[in-house]
Design a protein that fits this description.
mainly alpha; two-stranded antiparallel ribbon
């Protein structure tokens, strides 16, 4: 045997074994608490209208309705060539007809503007809007008409109509939601959606309104009571 050959056993040649790879441990992400420490209570977007704003808006709308009523009565007087004698003013059936016309003009005026624009011209002056309760949606024409019919009908109830009107006004002034009987029945509410006009603009508007009222009353007295055959 050759002495230069080592007597140690020959290791078999094989594939090199790689040491196991140890994966790095990822740190656990910290989840922040997004819940506010002092959560604020939810606030309703609907702010009930102040009674003073509603009363002021009614005065403006009442003047507009008076003017429209005068125009319709004058037109009827010219078309049918009728008049009301001063001495018969309390008993003339035309008084009843003209009163009925005034009621129709009033109901149509408020029903149309509340359904079409959400507010009458008077309410727009004070930043008010009529909406379905707990929403910002306008009333449908049917609900708007029903609302006005109920409001008009309250005062027509025999004997207690005046008391019902007073109670209805009390609800508008003192109730938390400022809803009258007519509002509760159709589930509507008058809310504030903007600021009223400045004070000097309101004063100017009322001066124009008073002049408008005076002209309207003059038309009714001079023409309605004198037009037509004597």
């Amino acid at each position: 045997m050759d002495p230069n050959i080592s007597s140690q056993p020959i290791q078999p040649v094989g594939p090199m074994v790689q040491p196991p790879v140890t994966q790095a441990v990822q740190p656990t992400p910290v989840v922040q608490n997004l819940t506010p420490q002092n959560p604020q209570p939810a606030v309703s977007p609907n702010i009930p209208s102040r009674a003073t704003y509603r009363l002021s808006a009614v005065l403006i709308d009442g003047g507009v309705v008076l003017g429209l009523w005068s125009a319709v009565c004058l037109l009827m007087a010219f078309i049918f060539n009728v008049h009301i004698a001063i001495k018969d003013a309390n008993t003339s059936p035309l008084i009843t007809v003209y009163s009925l016309v005034g009621g129709i003009v009033n109901v149509v005026y408020f029903s149309y503007f509340h359904a079409h624009d959400g507010a009458t011209p008077g309410k727009k002056v004070y930043g008010l809007r009529v909406v379905a309760i707990n929403t910002s949606s306008k009333l449908t024409y049917a609900k708007s008409l029903l609302r006005e019919l109920v409001k008009a009908g309250i005062g027509m109830v025999p004997i207690i109509g005046g008391l019902l009107n007073l109670a209805n006004g009390g609800l508008v002034v003192f109730s938390k939601t400022k809803q009258g009987i007519h509002d509760s029945l159709v589930k509507s509410q008058v809310i504030e959606v903007g600021k009223p006009l400045s004070l000097w603009k309101q004063l100017l508007l009322y001066l124009l309104l008073i002049s408008f009222w005076a002209v309207s009353v003059l038309i009714l007295i001079v023409f309605i009571f004198s037009i037509g055959p004597k």
